[in-house]
Design brief:
With 178 residues, this protein is an alpha+beta fold. The protein has seven helices and four strands; from the N terminus they run ααααααββαββ. It has two domains: 57 residues; 91 residues, Alpha-Beta Complex (H-NOX domain). 51% of the residues lie in helices and 17% in strands. The chain has a four-stranded antiparallel beta sheet, covered by helices on one side. The longest helix is centred in the middle third of the chain and has 19 residues. The structure holds protoporphyrin IX containing FE (HEM).
Length: 178
């Protein structure tokens, strides 16, 4: 997993909790805690950190991943402003993640491990998005989608309407408020 995800995660823990919490979970997780934004680290380190944060904070793992997704999206708007240049709404943006954004990400970081998405505009106010990834981070995707809607000031909700038993395939329904 790319270092940028770790550095943003650590920043979030410090800002939403504090430095003691960050040090505590690095200890509990048994990870090095040394990450640079351009490095690549084991995906399991992130799982260990999220599990440690969950037991220390009492917040469930999917909820932590969701909140982190929202935080990460707003970091992306700062770090990758060019992805936002010609788009003015969340549905257009979400429909570009698979065919454009993650494709560009893969060019910058050839070893990035990205999910695959299929999107379908059901009608002007509903978008279906299907997530495929062995990393089972559908809850992170929920937060990223919410962060995206907030960024474009699109009022609405995202719901998980289906998922495979092992959570490697998750279907989201994103609905704009009327
Ligand atoms: C400017 C927008 C975006 C950028 C720059 C971006 C970039 C990235 C990067 C760098 C990673 C880490 C890859 C790795 O660790 O190897 C990642 C992973 C991921 N991205 Fe994106 N992303 C963007 C938007 C989105 C959106 C809107 C969604 C959700 C619909 C999304 C869903 C995910 C998920 C769930 C992962 C975790 C890996 C997995 O589940 O397999 N991304 N993305």
């Amino acid at each position: 997993m790319k270092g940028i995800v770790f550095t943003e995660f650590m920043e979030m823990v410090e800002s939403k909790f504090d430095e003691d919490m960050l040090e505590g979970i690095i200890d509990d997780a048994g990870v090095s805690g040394v990450y640079t934004s351009i490095g690549t680290y084991p995906h399991t380190d992130m799982i260990q950190l999220v599990m440690a944060l969950s037991s220390k904070s009492g917040i469930e793992i999917p909820e932590l991943l969701r909140v982190f997704g929202g935080y990460l999206f707003s970091s992306f708007t700062r770090l990758y402003p060019h992805f936002f240049e010609d788009i003015d709404n969340s549905f257009d943006f979400l429909q570009q993640v698979e065919g454009f954004i993650h494709v560009q990400v893969k060019k910058i970081y050839p070893n990035a491990e990205l999910p695959r998405f299929e999107t379908k505009r059901l009608n002007p106010s509903e978008l279906q998005m299907i997530y495929y990834s062995d990393r089972r981070m559908g809850a992170l995707a929920v937060g990223l989608i919410q962060g995206c809607m907030e960024h474009f000031k699109d009022d609405g909700e995202v719901k998980i309407v289906d998922s495979s038993n092992d959570d490697t395939v998750v279907t989201f329904l994103i609905r704009l408020a009327k």
